[in-house]
Records
---
Amino acid sequence: MLVLHGFTGSPVSMRPLAEVFAGAGFAVELPRLPGHGTAVEDMIETGFDDWLTEAERGLAALQARVPDGKWVVAGLSMGGMLTAALAEGHPELAGIVLINTPASVPDEMAAVVEEMLAGGTEVMDSIGGDIADPDADEASYGETPLRPLITMIMAGADVRERLGDITQPALIITSRQDHVVNPEDSDVLAENISGPVERVWLEKSFHVATLDYDRAEVEAAALAFAQRVTAG
């Protein structure tokens, strides 16, 4: 299992899920994506290519550890976008798990971000911490760096165009009350992925569902899916 966290987040958001996989006997890689998990200043000079390179490194490390295995990738939010990008280039993957994953970012948002950058603004308010459970904390940044955000927006369009290249089984997990990613993006993913798609809808969680009230449901569904696609 390769497990990928989201934009401005950290491995904290995915650690419980990674531990469930490890406890069930899976080899697990949970990388910290470049610029994340330290200080927002470290993220400003990074972008989607850096994060995808680290995701590729994590997958290569996993395949080296278990060369005769079957590999599954699970990602939250932008980590889900990275998961989709990996699946598009790695048909050998047994399956993917996409949790509250954006299909693309509206053009008007890109225009607003570019205008802010042109005006000298480098960061905006945080998009992290969208969790219904007040006791949960994903250890995300308190600000959102705009230059990295633009790289994600641009890459997202390419990932969406190539969704048809994903022929592996996919599990799509969606919070109905997501204040970061439009839940309808999951419909776009489901309609355009070529492989078989399973869906789970969450009723009590916000964006960071892996730490929220439906956490147990997320873990159970993802584990059952991973065991099924790697069986035999």
---
Amino acid sequence: MLIEGIFAAVPTPFYPDERVYFRKLEANMARYSRSLLAGMLLLGSTGEAPMLDDAESRDVLRTAADAAAPEKVLIAGVGRESVKATVELAEAVAGFNYDAVLVRIPTYYASQMSQAAVLHYFRCVADRSPLPVLIYNIPRCVPYNIPIELVAELAQHPNIIGIKDSSGSLERIQGAVALTHTAPRRTVIVTPVFEAVTARMLAPKAEANAAAVLSLRRRWRVVLARPSPLLL
């Protein structure tokens, strides 16, 4: 899939009593959908993901996806404290028709997150996630700044397609670009103007084409089953 353009970091609106304001979320998503944004990111740091329990997170992600225009790329923040919980949420958002997931590092044991542990965590999530994975590096919220050498190693995984780096360091970004230069090249489908095309967007077309082919085959069977009038 192609990740290109500007994405809105969607906030999660709340009532004063801390209930999620779903109607406002729907209105915001509809407004973003009318813009020139390439897509929207739900439940990042601006989405206040740590403030939501699992049920609220799923409800927010489902509501946002239902309110979004189908041509907008949707990315869901699914980072949890375990591989199991992260993958379960990734599986849920795949059912909500998201295009990719954003995965942060677990935070509770951040002081013990060695490079080996981080590498194992992301690889395990990427192995089991039904959607492409974006690494989320945000050291001001998670007290761990993923080394760019580790980013380069993770870039070799076929289901890890990029990184959202919120470190604020241009030098770090330049270093990551240089070190990932040898990462496997992926072939993606694009439109003539390089608008986004994702597996979710292609699925209805593939189903329609398959249905058309099946219908054509059935018509040919009917025609071939009829006796030729020349033989009567």
---
Amino acid sequence: MSRLGGRVAIVTGASSGIGRATAKLFAQEGAKVVVGARREAELAELVREIKAAGGEALALAGDVQSEQYARDLVGAAVKQFGRLDIAFNNAGTIGPTGATTEVAEKDWNSAVAVNLTSAFLGAKHQIPAILKQGGGSIIFTSTFVGYTNSFPGVAAYAASKSGLIGLTQALAAEYGPQGIRVNAVLPGAIDTPMYHAVNNSEEQRTWLTNLHALKRVGKPEEVARSVLYLASDDAAFVTGTAHLVDGGVSITRT
């Protein structure tokens, strides 16, 4: 039996990595999916794959920094599929790296806009639609960085992503009585284009891999399965959590 049958979901950052894997898994589990990201061609290919596998999906390209885009994603879900039950606000960026004293204000603001403000804007417009169904699930993609530990040179990333945990808790408390569950998933290092862009040498990748208790990096599909759990009725009593899917990087000191 499908775990998301009859439900409609929005997935942002869906053109690659965790978002792409989650959109495909949601569709496999019976959800009708609206996928969003900036790259139109990649979204079109994702929709083609979902439909070829027997699922239903709609793509809408845009910039998550835009409040109008947040409105449009919800509008597309309701117009095409009649409702909204689940939102996976996954879009994100590493942002500026290097010494914090050298980070330009505009680059800091851009990282906050993509990682944190976009999630607020998404939830702001998703919540009213989800409330019409008597409740549902919202999930954000945060990270262990700035939560259980951190690294030099990633202040904007750590601050903006850890801010999602505060947003998660506030929304969970505010809308729990109305049936909306809100959780954050916190991946470790995951084999995505973003991971390779930041860790562009074998030495760097080996160092990061060995920080994990499992001594490997994760796969997007492994995070997607945790997101599916949080979206489904299996997690009916789970809200306000920072859900680590990090291969043990948070507890390893060897």
---
Amino acid sequence: MRLIHNPMRRGDERPEPNPDGTMTLTEHLGELRQRIIRAALAILVGMIVIMAFYDRVLGFLLEPYHKLCESDSDYCPLGSRLIITDPVEGLSTRVRIAMYGGLLIALPVIMWQIWKFVVPALKANEKRYAIPFIVSSVTLFLLGSVIAYLTLEKALQFLIAWAGDDVEGLFQVSKYVRLVTLMAFAFGVGFQFPVLLVFLQLVGVLTPQQLLGAWRYAILGIVVAAAVITPSGDPISLTALAAPMLVLYFVAVGIGFIAQRRSRAASAPAAT
């Protein structure tokens, strides 16, 4: 019995890559799924690491509150220990800390996966910025998180003082951890702003002249953005976030001018 070859059978289909390097929608979705899976695995590994050192991590997060209580007991008349009000709160807090910590540990992998997903849409001369993009993004995120952590004691002091003289502080561990982690991530995300500006200048969407000419609007926008993304809403945290963002804005403009000058110098011989 002769077998008839059916070219429409699923096993015989062999999608050939396009000669121009473009990808179909299905290929884009497959690539996105692959990047998400790799990032998720990196987060999972980070969560396991945080779980193994949970007590040390929790003690590190509580350090600003402990320092505030040691410096002035009026802010902590009931002591610096936190409480739980739900039987499952301890477990949920442990998982939440592990998740946030795992995300922080996996940040370089996540940024790399994002970059690899974006790379096919870039030109050849733009792909060389991969390593600087990853290093600067991770460094600035960690710098923002450190600033949030260092200013947390003063922020807590301000927030507790505004509760009133007749109010005694006794805080849930879950809500305290949520405040600390949200502050760290808000500052970290805010510090990604100059990376975005430099990237937009390198690909030609913006010019340093445009950014420098709009510096007044940039100051206003940065202050408003800092007020919106700061979880605590206190002026100390707002200032601690807005001031570095303003400095980094002009640093990004300076990098744009340097890149623009190098680009013109490189294209000058070709023009002659």
